[in-house]
From TrEMBL:
Organism expressing this protein natively: Actinoallomurus oryzae
Domain Thioredoxin, chain residue ranges per copy: 65-228
The name this protein goes by in its record: SCO family protein
Similarity section: Belongs to the SCO1/2 family.
Keyword terms of this UniProt record: Copper
Length: 239
């Protein structure tokens, strides 16, 4: 059993690149030791329950989990300033959920950029069946306006959510996403958060976890497969 987390915060571009490399290496090590080890959170306060995994999937770049994770029935504030319910806003679509923050120097913008690049490689019909949701782990700085501007630099269709930190943390915990409340929310502070992308199907379940470092090319290869898998699930397992 294991769960993931990483810490991001201040640092020059070079330091951010090195940090990303370290996280990718940590993810690779974790995937290589799935049956025997646990990867702990950076800061014990937000440690979520471990998520049981079945192991790497040769046909996909994610990791299968033994018990599917339920998509949270979560209502937060969208980039328009109005309440948005996660389930209703993404109904009928493959939904890629990521917890992060806009001041993140490395893995958050890289993940959003890779997802946006992958979506551009898909057909319009495929693209219409996918939703990307960014849930902030830094609601003190990430106002609806800030998130909207930040996401627009990647893809204007991405859904951004902010709101009460305790509510966000509670939604992340059963998903195995470690969040740690910053010791201070003034000045240039760091935020510790999990770096995974969870793909929820139309059944509102995630059957895989994607760790940090999945490239745009790999995402572009996996997304059509996930859509086909989702369609088969909706039809009761028929291809």
């Amino acid at each position: 059993m294991f769960f993931f987390s990483h810490a991001t915060g201040r640092g020059a571009r070079g330091a951010g690149s090195r940090a990303t490399s370290v996280r990718r290496l940590a993810g690779a090590v974790a995937l290589g030791l799935l049956t025997a080890t646990a990867l702990g959170a950076c800061g014990g306060r937000a440690e979520p329950p471990p998520v049981k995994v079945a192991g790497p999937t040769p046909e996909l770049h994610g990791t299968r989990i033994t018990t599917p994770l339920r998509e949270p029935d979560l209502t937060l504030t969208g980039t328009s300033g109005r309440p948005v319910n996660l389930l209703k806003a993404t109904e009928g679509r493959l939904t890629l959920v990521y917890f992060g923050y806009t001041h993140c120097p490395d893995v958050c913008p890289t993940t959003m950029a890779d997802l946006a690049a992958a979506l551009r490689k898909l057909t319009p019909a495929q693209r219409a069946r996918i939703a990307v949701v960014f849930i902030t782990t830094d609601p003190w700085r990430d106002t609806p306006k800030v998130i909207k501007s930040w996401l627009a630099s990647f893809d204007t269709s991405f859904i951004g959510l902010t709101g009460d930190y305790a509510k966000i943390q509670a939604a992340a915990k059963p998903l195995g996403i470690a969040l740690e409340r910053p010791s201070s929310t003034t000045g240039d502070y760091e935020v510790t958060h999990g770096a995974e992308v969870l793909p929820f199907g139309t059944d509102h379940r995630a059957h895989l976890i994607y760790t940090a470092g999945v490239s745009a090319t790999d995402w572009a290869a996996d997304l059509p497969k996930l859509l086909r898998e989702q369609a088969a699930t909706a039809k009761g397992g028929s291809a």
